[in-house]
Write a structure and sequence with these properties.
This protein is α/β, with parallel strands linked by helices. The protein folds into 4 domains: 209 residues, FAD/NAD(P)-binding domain, CATH 3.50.50.60; 182 residues, FAD/NAD(P)-binding domain (3-Layer(bba) Sandwich); 140 residues, no CATH class; 87 residues, BFD-like [2Fe-2S]-binding domain (Arc Repressor Mutant, subunit A). It has 17 helices and 36 strands. The strands form 9 sheets. Strands 9, 10, 11, 12, 13, 14 and 25 form a 7-stranded mixed beta sheet that branches. It has a 7-stranded antiparallel beta sheet with strand order 26-29-30-33-32-31-34. Strands 2-1-7-5-6 form a 5-stranded mixed beta sheet, covered by helices on one side. Helix 6 links the parallel strand 17 and strand 18. Helix 2 packs parallel to helix 9. The protein is globular, with a radius of gyration of 26 Å. The two termini are 40 Å apart.
């Protein structure tokens, strides 16, 4: 790698790209044709996009998904979200410094607005929306997908890891990026499905029409049924220094790294041990980024154990029962201080640890984008939800639930469509299950022949190892998807189970050539951190504890293994079965530095748009105010351009801390339009 663009990646192809020029505050810079402004700025080493008019604080990105407004810049004189605006040749982009002076807008002539009718409107072209559309298209239902990105696939286009779930029903063992391409291809080939990319659904009106900004042109669509598959937005977190530039969500990080191949950080620290945070840490290692550590407030990570184990084995420290105490820096984050927390989530004094980092990744949960469902119900339009817009779950679950929603809608429109099999509902319940119990770790007793050692101990919906074994020797104990894999039979040493396992939790031990020094086969997916024959590697057990240093005897890198390398080495027989992986990140990366703490309560930001602190909100709650609209009127919290999408949850947290139940609170009144749109767009009709 050189500069801030990723030039080598173990999973993603690095293609040649066309350069274009643009101007940032009068300085000519280079961008990749087709990329958004925020990615182009990051690629040029620019993370501060302006300063807030209220207090002069530095502004950068948070969501990179159009949900907030931290990344606003001035584009040819007009305020635009840099994460949603594509760079064009010679474009003049300026930082927002205070309140900008904007030019007088052009005059608009009232024009006719194009109105179209569809059987079904799907809002969101992610895993759920695409899966539903395929069902609808196959049943000759006229369907429109609206998505605000340049390509469909949703979060699938960001997922370089292999998926869990069922091979048959949710492509388990296949990488998310490849699943996204397969689903998008099926949709594009179906004549009954139209796809509007770069298009935003704005509102569902009472006359049962949906306003949509398609490639900057306003249109109206009248559907019989709406499927809300708009996904979810990331939650924010309160802590001192939480508004520094360099603090942003996991989705923003994955967008920069895996979609746009921009390396946004050198040293990353992660808050949140769910699957989103754990996977983002793994993606960072694949992008050649140092992962300093990860904190999880609960006593154990909420994500799959195999994800957490995978990070720990590669050399990333995980601090459970810890949380972020404060971010340190002037305008951008320079270090993070964490501390242990008690059972009431209060920091334990004396346990503080500080680490140098330039980015803090927030992965503390998701909130369903439910606006379209609520609006459609109010308007009297039949509406269903699927994927994260319905309930937060893994993408494998979103795909299968989208499939069910599509067939259900097809049945409503055409009674001749077949009934949904009961088995589908059963599988849907399994695929959305949270991780289950963890079993005792038992290594096989055998010391002859060749056999897999399965280091997967937690019940999770996953069965590719069972499906791929040519000898049918790996069986699921109990449930065919949720059960734990068990080896019982004959092994030919093909290594297919090792290569396909999404959790990298299967190794192969071969005693056939040498009973005292068997060959161990390990899966490896960070091949830009090169491992070559003859290299000595620090092998670790399931917990990440080092158990020996051994030389690599062979590196198998073949197309059939789908970008998973198989690393072979000879080890003493007494530890061969214990080896699960090897460390690639040195312990020095996660060294602590001197910590200086000043405990100041409630100075953290709750509303980033209007710079409202927790203290300002808490003082009003203590005065007895329980109407969030009144709080908004007094403090302006929720009145900024994001429309309370970021601060709503944080304010509700303060109510809970003060002992006020959420059903006693008057919620925020939502704005009549989902995102900000220049008024002229509604007047121009069919003109751009």
């Amino acid at each position: 790698m050189s500069g801030n663009r990723i030039e080598e990646h173990p999973i993603l192809p690095i293609a040649d790209w066309e350069k274009i020029n643009f101007f940032w505050n009068g300085k000519k810079l280079t961008a990749k044709k087709g990329e958004v402004i925020s990615s182009a700025l990051f690629a040029n080493g620019i993370k501060i996009f302006g300063h807030h008019p209220k207090d002069g604080s530095a502004q950068g990105i948070f969501c990179a998904n159009g949900q907030c407004a931290k990344c606003t810049v001035i584009v040819d004189g007009v305020p635009m979200k840099s994460c949603m605006t594509i760079v064009k040749p010679e474009m003049k982009i300026e930082s927002v410094e205070g309140l900008p002076k904007l030019p007088q807008t052009d005059k608009h002539e009232i024009g006719d607005i194009e109105e179209l009718e569809y059987d079904v409107l799907i809002i969101g072209g992610g895993p759920a929306g695409l899966s539903a559309a395929i069902q609808l298209g196959d049943h000759n239902i006229k369907t429109l997908i609206v998505d605000d990105k340049t390509e469909t696939g949703g979060k699938l286009v960001l997922q370089t890891h292999k998926f869990f779930g069922s091979v048959k029903d949710s492509y388990a063992g296949t990488r998310g990026i490849d699943i996204g391409k397969m689903l998008s291809k099926k949709v594009s080939e179906n004549k009954n499905i139209d796809v509007w990319s770069n298009s935003i659904a704005l509102y569902v009106y009472k006359d049962k029409k949906v306003g949509i900004l398609k490639n900057d042109v306003y249109k109206l669509v009248k559907p019989k049924i709406i499927l809300n598959a708009a996904g979810a937005r990331e939650k924010f977190l309160r802590f001192k220094g939480n508004s520094l530039v360099g603090i942003y969500g996991a989705g923003a990080f994955q967008t920069l790294v895996n979609r746009d191949l921009v390396r946004p950080t050198k040293r990353l620290f992660i808050v949140g041990g769910g699957n989103v945070g754990l996977i983002a840490g793994y993606h960072a290692l694949q992008a050649g980024i140092e992962v300093v550590g990860l904190v999880e407030a609960m006593p154990k990570c909420g994500g799959y154990k195999v994800h957490a184990d995978k990070l720990a084995r590669l050399g990333v420290p995980i601090y459970t029962s810890h949380s972020v105490l404060q971010a340190n820096g002037k305008e951008t984050i320079e270090s993070v201080t964490i501390s242990q927390i008690d059972e009431k989530f209060n920091p334990v004094k004396g346990t503080e640890k500080t680490f140098d980092c330039d980015t803090l990744l927030i992965a503390v949960g998701l909130e369903s984008v439910s606006e379209f469902t609520d609006e459609a119900e109010t308007a009297g339009i039949r509406v269903l939800s699927a994927g994260d817009a319905k309930e937060i779950a893994e993408a494998s679950s979103a795909m299968f639930n989208g499939k069910i929603a599509g067939l259900k809608i097809a049945k409503e429109i055409d009674p001749n469509v077949e009934e949904i099999p009961n088995s589908w509902y059963d599988k849907a319940e399994i695929l959305k299950k949270a991780a289950g119990k963890i079993s005792e770790y038992k290594l096989p007793e055998s010391e002859e022949g060749v056999f897999p050692v399965i280091h997967c101990l937690q019940e999770i919906p996953c069965n590719p190892c069972n499906t791929i074994c040519p000898m049918n020797s790996i069986n699921m104990e109990g449930d065919p998807i949720m059960g734990l894999p068990v080896f019982n039979g004959k092994c030919i040493g093909c290594g297919k189970c090792v290569a396909i396992c999404p959790g990298l939790a299967i190794t192969l031990v071969d005693f056939r050539r040498d009973k005292n020094f068997p060959t161990v086969t390990l899966p490896y997916e960070v091949s830009n951190h090169k491992i070559s024959v003859g290299d000595d590697i620090f092998c670790v057990d399931i917990t990440g504890k080092e158990i020996g240093k051994f030389a690599v005897t062979q590196v198998v890198d073949v197309e059939t293994n789908n970008r998973t390398q198989l690393i072979k080495l000879k080890t003493p027989k007494n530890i061969a079965k214990k080896i699960v992986s090897f460390r690639i990140q040195e312990a020095e990366i996660s060294q602590q530095k001197e910590t200086e703490i000043k405990y100041i309560s409630d100075e953290e930001m709750v509303c980033l748009c209007e710079r409202v602190t927790a203290k300002e909100i808490r003082d009003l709650i203590k005065k007895g105010i329980t109407d969030m609209n009144q709080i908004k009127a007094i403090t302006r919290a929720g009145m900024g351009p994001c429309g309370a999408k970021s601060c709503d949850n944080l304010i509700k947290q303060l109510f809970r801390q003060e002992g006020i139940l959420l059903d006693k609170i008057e919620p925020n009144t939502r704005r009549p339009i989902f995102v900000e749109v220049p008024l002229g767009k509604f007047a121009d009709g069919g003109k751009k």
